[in-house]
Write a structure and sequence with these properties.
10 strands; alpha/beta; 8 helices; Aminopeptidase; 310 residues; single chain; two-stranded antiparallel sheet; globular; hydrolase; 8-stranded mixed beta sheet; carboxypeptidase
Length: 310
Amino acid sequence: MTTIPYPIGTPGQPWGAAERAAWLARQIRRRSYATEVLDAIERLRTQWDVVEYGRLDYASDHYPLLAIRSRDWRDDLPCALVTGGVHGYETSGVHGALRFVERHAADYAGRINLLVAPCVSPWAYERIHRWNALAIDPNRSFRADSPAPESAALMRLVAPLREDVLVHIDLHETTDSDESEFRPALAARDGKPYEPGEIPDGFYLVGDSDNPQPAFQQAVIAAVAKVTHVAPADRDGRIIGSPVVAPGVINYPVKSLGLCAGVTQAPYTTTTEVYPDSPRATPEQCNAAQAAAVCAAITFALAQRAQPVA
C-alpha cells in the first residue's frame, strides 16, 4: 500500500522544534471547553463538590482543570475514579463522564466515594486532537516527571488516594481519525514508518495485562452490549493489533506504557473504547455506553468487595 507522507517533517527524521511549531500552527480551536464542559460542571455544584486541581497555560490559552467529588466523602469508604478526555478529541469520554454524574452517580451515595475528572485535556478537547499543545500524548505520560502537564496535574490530584481507589475506569474512543491523522502524525513525529492499521467497528475494553480481572471486564462488556454493539476480533483474532482475550477485551501493560488506567493501585481498572464513527452508533448511544460502562464497573467492584473472605 502506498501512503502519502505526513505534511510536516522529513520521513525517517524525528521532529525538532521547527516541526513541532509548524504542527502547532495548524491546530484550530473548533469547540468551547467553557461552554460545553465548564458550564455542565457548574450545573452540578448544587449536589457535588467541584475542585480545581490545576491549570493549563499554553501561550494565550488558559484552562482550569476541574474534578467532581462526592460532597458526602467518607474516609471509611473506597473510591471510584472516573476519567474522561485524556485524549481531548474523544468526545464521548468527556460527555459520558458528565452523563454518569448527572444521571447515575447519586445511586452510589453512601456506598463509595466518587472522583470524576471529565476532561483531562481541555486544550485538545477544543481542537479535537489527541495530543496536547506540546505534541505530546497525555495517555503515554502518566509517569514520574511527566512531560505532559495534563497528566502531571491528574497524578497530583490522585496521589493521596492511590491506595484507596477500588475501581478506575478511563473513558476513551477509537475513531477513524486515528488512521487518517493521529497515527500518521505519530509516525512522522517519531521519524518512523507509518504502518496502516484497522479500526474496529464497535465498543471494546483495554484491561491491564498485569492485573486483567476477566470477570470484571466481561461484566462491563455485558452492560455496554445492551446499549451499543461490541467490536469483533479481526481475521487474526486481534483488535488494534492486540490479541482478543475475551469478547471485546484486549490487554495492555498499562503502568509501563504510562497509561491513565495505571495511575492508581486500584484492583479493578479498565479503559473503554467507543467507536463513534460507526454507522450503527449515534452520539447519544456513545455517551450512554460510556455511562453504562462506569455503572457496571462500580457495581461489580462493590459486589466483589462485599463478598466475605473465604
